[in-house]
Amino acid sequence: MAKFEITMLGCGSGIPTAKHMTSAQIVNINERLFLVDCGEGTQTQIWKYRVKLTNLDAIFISHMHGDHFFGLIPLLSSIGLMLARTEDLHIYMPIVMVEPIQYDLDKYCYLPYKVILHGIDTTAREVLYENSTMTVESIPLEHKTPCMGFLFKEKPKANILLPEKCKEYGINCTEFRKIKEGADYITPDGRTIPNSELTKPSDYIPKSYAYCSDTSYCPALAEQIHGVDLLYHEATFVESEKDMAATAGHSTASQAADIALRANAKQLAIGHYSIRYNDEDELLAEAKSVFSNTVATQEGMVISI
Amino acid sequence: MAKFEITMLGCGSGIPTAKHMTSAQIVNINERLFLVDCGEGTQTQIWKYRVKLTNLDAIFISHMHGDHFFGLIPLLSSIGLMLARTEDLHIYMPIVMVEPIQYDLDKYCYLPYKVILHGIDTTAREVLYENSTMTVESIPLEHKTPCMGFLFKEKPKANILLPEKCKEYGINCTEFRKIKEGADYITPDGRTIPNSELTKPSDYIPKSYAYCSDTSYCPALAEQIHGVDLLYHEATFVESEKDMAATAGHSTASQAADIALRANAKQLAIGHYSIRYNDEDELLAEAKSVFSNTVATQEGMVISI
């Protein structure tokens, strides 16, 4: 079975504390790694939880608030020092961040690899990253500064060849790849055999993960992530502080659960807890009362899809 | 007795690891706090060791390598968020750092207090900070980038009044402060009573602490810190790697101890350990063989002078 798992590195908000580090996650899809957000101390969490950064494919930063990126320059610096990476590293971030991050790179870092910063228009939905098996799309979010979420989505698997049919038409194995990708087959005497006769669709259901932080309550978001297997949605406050949440551009645990419900998500993971809470009991109970399959993320937690 | 203690927050070098955080120390002199260097995660260490930052007087940054300042912007940001400081905060750093740090402050921070960056010529010895009881002087160091150490020094205590002499000359108590500060006394009939007749020198020996990191072996340094009560000197490598130390602008444990010996320091604290060492046994043994009163710093260690 294909690996698709998320390691939580930081589940708090605002500042790192004894209980929670600030936002960072590793998304591992078949041993290709993606870092989502990078609060201060993310590299320490990466070493602590033995994440192997040699397979780091790309980094995605949601917005320019310190608790989501203060660990980026230190991490890039350490990757150069420790891993002697030489491969280019692509980082996707709101347009507004590109100039200052490039400035810091130029001033503070001496890297043996090239960092390519992609400035993203956070108001548009677009495919940021694509490889042969998956895509990462941006999700416009509503926050106090340009902000986006990220949708990690496997591609549908290729059709499955029907071997007895291929044999029947005497098809050479050199044709198989094209047919799996959807091509019809032309027999030596010029007849067209439609693809649907030679293959059946894969019954594999592509998996998907949506990271939505930071954002105020935004019901329209549900459409963008409809049917997602796992939704990470910020739940900075409890519902009784929803006015404060709205003012600060954040969501409550109930609101996060409401989005999961509307999106018909299979599972909800909450995080980005305000430092005012001693634990997550109330936030979790509140979310579960709306959407039962909810988990309160903790540092080191790994969720497999 | 006056408080003069140093809390070690980060004793490693290069990158923060599971064993050691990067450079940072708190110098507490009579509950006025000074932060020296600020590697990534310094704020987490500050909260962990329950340092009360409300009394933070000033910050000193030795040089522009990430393991000595990557935690600065995050810390300044958190001080604004958590402590609601309104008082100006003065930070002393090599001239070359002022422009980029000011840039980062402008781009990333929204502070309710003013940060004043002082760009220091690291090739000159100068008094950076002074209050009624102490001074902080820069110490030129030899490193691969402009770098300075810091000498924290109590001022000599005022002379002690001789009460029977004051009584004999009928001196009013309103004159006492001036006399303690060294003034002679003029009697109502115009006679001058020399200060030496009215006071005796305090027998209090002012304490001092020198922070020297990062630096290559530099025997001339000993003169600058002669007689210091406690010397923190980097000991990145063991003596068998002294060539590498020299190339990298660092010192060995033996060299650190040699400086302590030449400076006639009372105690040596070593740190800034290379990540290549699993523990500090060899570094400490090596330093002790040259200068016995040596301690290997660890995070959370507090040294009182």
Would you give an account of this structure?
- 2 copies of one chain form a homodimer.
- Chain A is α/β, with parallel strands linked by helices and 305 residues long.
- Chain A folds into 2 domains: 4-157 and 204-304, 4-Layer Sandwich (Metallo-beta-lactamase, Chain A); 160-200, no CATH class.
- Chain A is built from 11 helices and 18 strands.
- The first copy, chain A, has a 7-stranded mixed sheet. In chain A, strands 7-8-9-14-15-16-17 form a 7-stranded mixed sheet, with helices on one face.
- In chain A, helix 10 (253-262) packs parallel to helix 11 (281-290).
- Chain A is globular, with a radius of gyration of 22 Å.
- The termini of chain A are close together.
- The relative contact order of chain A is 0.14.
What count of structural domains of chain A? 2
Task: Give the mean pLDDT of chain A.
Answer: 96
Q: Spans of chain A with pLDDT under 50 lasting ≥5 residues?
A: none
Oligomer: homodimer
As a percent range, the share of helical residues of chain A equals: 25-40%
For this structure, the CATH topology of the largest domain in chain A is Metallo-beta-lactamase, Chain A
Main beta-sheet annotation of chain A: 7 strands, mixed
| Helix/strand order of chain A | EEEHEHHEHEEEEEHHEEHEEHEHHEHEE
Helix/strand layout:
Two copies of one chain form a homodimer.
Chain A: E1 4-10, E2 24-29, E3 32-38, H1 42-48, E4 56-60, H2 66-69, H3 72-83, E5 89-94, H4 95-108, E6 115-120, E7 127-130, E8 134-140, E9 148-154, E10 160-161, H5 163-168, H6 176-180, E11 185-186, E12 192-193, H7 195-198, E13 199-200, E14 208-212, H8 221-224, E15 230-234, H9 242-248, H10 253-262, E16 267-271, H11 281-290, E17 294-296, E18 302-304
Parallel strand pairs in A: 3-4, 4-5, 5-6, 14-15, 15-16, 16-17
Antiparallel strand pairs in A: 1-2, 1-18, 2-3, 7-8, 8-9, 9-14, 10-13, 11-12
Helix pairs in contact in A: 10-11
